[in-house]
Amino acid sequence: MTDRSLPRAARSSLDLIGNTPMVEVTRIDTGPCRLFLKLENQNPGGSIKDRIALSMIEAAEKDGRLTPGGTIIEATAGNTGLGLAQVATVKGFKLILVVPDKMAREKILHLRAMGVDVRITRSDVGKGHPEYYQDMAQTIAQGIPGALYVNQFENPANPLAHQTTTGPEILDQMEGDVDAVVVGVGSGGTLTGLGRFFREASPKTRMILADPVGSILYDYVNTGQYGEAGSWIVEGIGEDFIPDNAQMDLVAKAYAISDRESVETARLLLEKEGILAGSSSGTLLAAALRYCREQTEPKRVVSLVCDTGGKYLTKMFNDMWVAAHGFEERTKHGDLRDLIA
Ligand code: PMP
């Protein structure tokens, strides 16, 4: 074990948000580069979204949009909901989450156990329909005086959390020397916040986008245009529109990663490095490995483990599920050997 001094006991779980550890990838071939992963799964709510939940709620408290005992509303199928629940629980706010009905049972059970009012709605309707989860959240917010509709896609406190915490932490942990940072885009907060921070603090650092095949962002980066979105199984990243919070001109290079490659790479990370990460981390690591192996000179590259793989144990870490999705051949027959150092 590396010797490291431990901080004193925290006053609440919210004080444990951020300051996440960084680990180097040493058992997978990274070409001429050194690749480091920031373990955002070690936030108390289990994901990178704890940071933005805290920042968005504290910004609203500060400017009076949220008062003690008030109600917070968001439309989310995932980690932002868990992050908001984490913060709302400790700070004593009520939380209503509007969730599309395709969401995993584990997540709904987790939220309900935290006292969240989970309203389940249809996932087969689009923007503009009253039962579309974002429209429904807005309607609920309008009916509750003083309620705060968080809206992570447009809320400036989302990218700001990464600009003021995640970015400085990365640069410090990398001793001021970072050539590239590989991120995904869901709301765009990570890309925009880190991109803005590094543009000022370390202009040589390039932002690299990892996008699931089917998302429109890869095409948008390369051509400035996009067509109809497809579908993908990776959770939390990829979009069918450009969120206000996603400043896409910060991206220097983009990779489109298939579901198969994301799943295989997340499993490889667990098998080789002992890190149980979620599906979007598989996408990010796959893009980071491609970027690293394409380099002709040594570079220092950082990516993120966005959330824990614990909530995907019945999905991508389950061989039956993997087989049912047609990923079986390569995972069973060990074609991954060419990826291993
Ligand atoms: N990975 C996971 C698992 C996520 O839940 C999210 C957020 N949707 C992201 C990555 C992307 O982060 P951002 O919203 O900052 O673009």
UniProtKB/TrEMBL annotation:
Belongs to the cysteine synthase/cystathionine beta-synthase family. One of its GO terms (biological process) is cysteine biosynthetic process from serine. The keyword Manganese does not apply. Keywords: CBS domain, Pyridoxal phosphate. Its cofactor is pyridoxal 5'-phosphate. GO terms for molecular function: transferase activity, transferring alkyl or aryl (other than methyl) groups. It comes from Caulobacter mirabilis. This is Cysteine synthase B. The lineage of its organism: Bacteria, Pseudomonadati, Pseudomonadota, Alphaproteobacteria, Caulobacterales.
